[in-house]
Task: inverse folding
């Protein structure tokens, strides 16, 4: 489930529900364009009023599972025991965050290109940090300035174990970026056959297309990628009711 905070930026920066992303009218079109309509979404504001308007907008655009948090952030906060915001951050993780240019307690902070610590760890293939960030509440659904999530960065780095860790944690394997491209499309267009095979084994959707109507199969940059994707397409066709073997 994706979580979105529609309070002002300062309130979001001060504290928010773990895993939540900041949502405004400015980036709402990006959410609508880049999220599949079957994705479950929770929206909250201060007291549960503004979030209802956002939820209604998403419902109007065809999203089938949208929730507005009754009572908003304040009601949620009052149900929690008081604790330090950095209680789940170990000294080792704090040191890693600082070394990468993030605040020592900023598991969802961003640097250039809206890169989060989870994206950075995925790009580096640091599975231990990935797992610790997720345990500390890092937003697995966060997207950078291009609309890519941490999985895309793991694919860029060709880190299969990082891909495994993110998929196991529930990352959107079919997240579409601002151009409609998925991690499978990236791997295919880059000729990363091992990554293509890995994503297909994890259930990546071969039928997704970019805004220009190109699929991962169309983008195959090597014969090995082409063969893998053709085989997956044939298997998908065979599994469709009424199709011929």
Result:
């Amino acid at each position: 489930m994706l979580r979105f905070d529609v309070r002002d930026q300062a309130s979001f920066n001060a504290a928010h529900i773990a895993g939540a992303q900041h949502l405004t009218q400015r980036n709402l079109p990006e959410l609508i364009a880049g999220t599949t309509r079957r994705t479950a979404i929770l929206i909250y504001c201060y007291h549960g009023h503004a979030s209802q308007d956002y939820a209604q907008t998403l419902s109007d655009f065809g999203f089938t599972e949208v929730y507005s948090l009754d009572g908003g952030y304040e009601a949620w906060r009052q149900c929690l025991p008081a604790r330090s915001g950095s209680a789940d951050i170990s000294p080792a993780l704090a040191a890693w965050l600082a070394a990468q240019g993030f605040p020592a307690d900023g598991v969802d902070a961003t640097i250039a290109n809206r890169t989060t610590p989870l994206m950075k760890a995925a790009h580096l293939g640091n599975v231990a940090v990935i797992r610790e960030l997720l345990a500390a509440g890092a937003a697995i659904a966060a997207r950078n300035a291009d609309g890519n999530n941490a999985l895309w960065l793991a694919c860029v780095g060709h880190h299969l174990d990082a891909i495994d860790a993110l998929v196991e944690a529930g990352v959107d394997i079919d997240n579409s970026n601002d151009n409609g491209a998925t991690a499978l499309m990236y791997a295919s267009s880059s000729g990363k056959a091992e990554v293509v095979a890995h994503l297909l084994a994890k259930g990546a959707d071969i039928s997704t297309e970019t805004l220009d109507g190109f699929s991962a199969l169309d983008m195959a940059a090597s014969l090995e990628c082409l063969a893998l994707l053709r085989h997956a397409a044939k298997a998908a066709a065979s599994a469709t009711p009424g199709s011929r073997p």
Q: What stands out?
A: The chain has twelve helices and four strands.
